[in-house]
From TrEMBL:
This is SLC12A transporter C-terminal domain-containing protein. One of its GO terms (cellular component) is membrane. It is found in: Membrane. Its main location: membrane. It comes from Octactis speculum. The keyword Membrane applies.
């Protein structure tokens, strides 16, 4: 693979609200991704995780995907939105890392938010 054909395919593991599935801004990462993709080359997957059983959260997941797609449209980011349901946020993120993309359209870069105060972080 030659360098001139390389395109960023970014998986952004974003934070979503547990109440309504809306995107929770994380220190300007969405703006950074928007700037990285200004040339129209590359794709981004905005992916969120919610905890619980899929049968109980199906409508919530559908709404969350729409909310993430709306944020991407506002920031003019090309790509896809995804939201999964898992027993924990860590398990959901593992699933997204392993299963995101399709064929050659697999992410080659992962972006995550980092907390301002690491002392308040959970054990995961």
């Amino acid at each position: 693979l030659e360098f001139k054909y390389w395109r960023p395919l970014i998986l952004f593991l974003c934070k979503t609200s547990s109440n309504d599935g809306k995107f929770v801004p994380q220190a300007g990462i969405a703006n950074l991704l928007s700037q990285l993709m200004k040339r129209g080359k590359g794709l981004t997957i905005f992916a969120g995780v919610t905890q619980g059983e899929f049968r109980d959260k199906a409508a919530f997941i559908w709404q969350g995907r729409r909310n993430l797609a709306q944020v991407m449209a506002e920031k003019e980011i090309d790509g896809f939105s995804e939201m999964v349901c898992a027993t924990s946020e860590l398990e959901g993120q593992k699933f997204l890392l392993h299963a995101s993309g399709l064929g050659a359209l697999r992410p080659n870069t992962v972006a995550i938010g980092w907390p301002d105060n690491t002392s308040t972080m959970g054990t995961e």
